[in-house]
């Protein structure tokens, strides 16, 4: 399985977002991860498709939108049009997760489904053949800079045992210490936000994470 890094812009200085995204692209990020929060599914509000679209001309690195929103399907088309190659919604946010995944693929984008650390992995089991990626949250969604929740490793292990070839992404509290744990459990796509911002530079942080991938 190819190990991939997906830096999140959430903890960056938003007044210098273009520079941050350009630096992530130059440092060889595999994806740029956009955390979209609606003030309903999670308390904070972040940004929408217009902001993502404004960054799209910076380079060819694929974009993924992580929708921490209720009624995520209302925004699928907008984020696809903004240039996201993958759109991830929360299984907890819709009673129609399978239909939503199908609609993403019909739009020509990769379908991702996410679960909170407090949700059982069984929630996504019926969806596995209909999605391109499962995102296991390793913190409670809503904020950067939180502490890694180790019990989420059990969800990663379970999903990996059910889907040996599927991309499994982890998001929250990922740094060079926790990355080997999630990799060992079976994850192959790693989101990181605050670790990169705490690093001497975004590029140096990405280099350290890549090193931790082994
Ligand atoms: C949290 C977001 C994450 C966030 C991770 O709800 O989904 O993508 O940026 O931040 P860190 O890496 O600081 O835990
Ligand atoms: Zn995220």
Attached small molecules: D-xylitol-5-phosphate, zinc ion
What name does CATH use for the topology? TIM Barrel
- Please state the average pLDDT score: 98
Number of strands: 8
What oligomeric assembly is this protein in?
Answer: single chain
Q: Which runs of at least 5 residues are low in confidence (pLDDT < 50)?
A: none
Number of domain units? 1
String of helices and strands: EHEHEHEHEEHEHEHH
CATH architecture: Alpha-Beta Barrel
**Spatial strand sequence of the major β-sheet:** 1-8-7-6-5-4-3-2
Q: Bin the strand percentage.
A: 15-25%
Return the CATH class: Alpha Beta
Radius of gyration: 16 Å
Q: Find the structural class using helix and strand composition.
A: alpha/beta
What is the terminal separation in angstroms? Answer: 13 Å
CATH superfamily: Aldolase class I
Helix count from the secondary structure assignment:
8
Task: Draw up the topology in text.
Blueprint: E1 4-7, H1 17-26, E2 32-37, H2 49-55, E3 63-68, H3 76-81, E4 84-90, H4 97-106, E5 110-115, E6 133-137, H5 152-162, E7 167-171, H6 179-185, E8 189-192, H7 194-198, H8 202-213
Parallel strand pairs: 1-8, 2-3, 3-4, 4-5, 5-6, 6-7, 7-8
The structure holds D-xylitol-5-phosphate and zinc ion.
């Amino acid at each position: 399985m190819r190990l991939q890094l997906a830096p999140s812009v959430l903890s960056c200085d938003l007044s210098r977002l273009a520079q941050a995204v350009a630096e992530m692209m130059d440092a060889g990020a595999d994806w740029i991860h956009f955390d979209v929060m609606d003030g309903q599914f999670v308390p904070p509000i972040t940004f929408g498709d217009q902001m993502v679209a404004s960054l799209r001309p910076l380079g060819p690195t694929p974009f993924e939108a992580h929708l921490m929103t209720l009624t995520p399907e209302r925004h699928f088309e907008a984020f696809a049009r903004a240039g996201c190659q993958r759109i991830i919604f929360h299984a907890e946010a819709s009673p129609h997760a399978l239909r939503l995944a199908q609609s993403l693929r019909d739009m020509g984008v990769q379908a991702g489904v996410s679960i909170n650390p407090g949700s059982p992995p069984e929630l996504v089991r019926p969806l596995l053949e209909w999605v391109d990626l499962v995102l296991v949250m390793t913190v409670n969604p809503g904020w950067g800079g939180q502490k890694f929740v180790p019990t989420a490793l059990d969800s990663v292990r379970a999903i990996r045992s059910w889907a040996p070839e599927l991309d499994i992404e982890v998001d929250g509290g990922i740094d060079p210490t926790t990355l080997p744990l999630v990799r060992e459990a079976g994850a192959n796509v790693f989101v990181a936000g605050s670790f990169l911002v705490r690093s001497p530079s975004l590029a140096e942080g990405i280099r350290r994470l890549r090193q931790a991938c082994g």
